[in-house]
Amino acid sequence: MSFSLHRRALLLGLLLAGGGAFAADGPPHSAPAATMTSPAQRPGHAAIASANFQATNAGLEVLSKGGNAFDAAIAVASTLSVVEPESSGIGGGFMALLHRAADGRDVFVDARETAPAAVDSKDYLNPDGSPNRDHSLNGPLSAGIPGEPAGLVWLAQHYGKLPLKASLAPAIRLARDGFTPDARLLGAIADRQKELQRWPASAAKFLPGGQPPAAGAVWRDPAQAHTLELLAEQGDQGFYHGETAAKLVKAVQAAGGRWSAADLAAYRVKERTPISLDYRGYKIVTAPPPSSGGVAIAEILNILSGFDLDKLDQAHRVHLVVEAMRRAFRDHNDYLGDPDFVKMPLDMLLSPYYADGLRQTILPDKATPSSMLPMSTARDPGMHTTHFSIIDADGNMASITSTVNYVLGSTFVAEGTGVLLNDEMDDFALVPDKPNVYGLLGSEANAPKPGKRMLSSMSPSFVIGKERTAVIGSPGGSTIITQVLEGILAFIDGEDAGAIAAHKRFHHQYMPDEIAVEQGVFDPATADALTKMGHTLKPREAWGFMNVVTWDHRSNKLEAASDPRRPSGLGKVQ
Fold first, then answer.
1. N vs C: which end of the chain shows fewer Cβ within 10 Å?
2. What does the domain layout of the chain look like in residue ranges?
3. What's the helix, strand, coil split of the chain in %, to 5?
């Protein structure tokens, strides 16, 4: 068959697959799946894995005081705000997947940032019409309204056992009394020193004496300690109203941003129904929109469910996984956005019938050039994020991914608050048909509007089987999706927590049409075979820092593991 005929046949196959998937009588995307050995089973002990040992220890401290997994999550997240501000914090947002053991309820808590009411795409354009990356990445124009403080309050009010004040106590203590920054934080400050120097409050916080903190020195953040104390005492009122809100708005507006007191007062946490599907006898529970990750993971797994991967050599297994990634990313780029603003064809994207049609377009030993698929616009949401996983003694589970977007977010600290603001506005398709910082385009589904949440790749997930369960997630921009996918596959293949976190990784996101590979992920024979199939392999150094907790129901053993790529991370069983 000629190339042009093959392309037309492939496109016809995709069109037929898409048309059939719209059938009104198709199955729902939440499929029945495996459950734990016994609903009443509890591990009797707890495990936490996070990217910083001080955050893990804070969570364990709160558990020892009678808290549950959700109280511990508040302690971990708020402590990360203090000790790991390059990745997350109360000036950003998070997405949380929770499992409540008492009634078996799974819920997704959306504390993602929102666009201010006065958002204007013209702010992100240069005079010649090209994107103004400085405005979308640095300073107050790049910042969405933070969701993390409201999310922490929500967890305490609706799922925790302890007062919010008790769960925030470790973070307040570290901010007030000080801690020794790790090498990664010191490196981030040095890397972004030029931007930090533009804002007086940022320089005062991160560059004492005009320089990054010295290695081994104790670093204190009394302004953030005070902001956390107000949050602890007053809940939402302590951040989105009153003293803190007034300082935030004053600082943002003085530096040219568009926040208002009404924007902060209007912020609300959203609870959403997680995506759930069955894969090889395991129940996969994962993130719904405005995360793009769960939809893409589900679509990939639905495609792969038609192959017997265990019978394939590594090259052909990777080939099929990559082809499934390619098709899922093509779809997620075009269709997904904030569900409160965008109507999405989720029944189509999550339908096994749709996956059947896509599977038919995959050749067993030849790569499909992305240019042969219907064109899509691609996005690569933020690269600097953090994730932590928790299982407590009662079997409550929390999988939470938190972010300020890029390294040290916007680099803008609001004077008098200690709050480092995010630069999540760049996760919107700010300028139609103009590439983002990665040279990628965004779609209308992810265009900014007042109060809208920007699309995210955050993919906190559970993998629940009859004999084993995993709580899993990772930072890493668009690679979050594929890293979590590969972690799920490794867990189902029987690997333990340490092996899953350490796994070498690969990634394909439709465009650019290449497999990003970690050094050592493929042996020479596999790499050669993939190249001969038509795949392009490109080395990539930056990968996320996965944190995973596993529970073996047969032995009632918990294991917690942090990514070895980050020495300061800690997975710990209590």
1. N
2. 47-271+383-438
3. 40, 15, 45
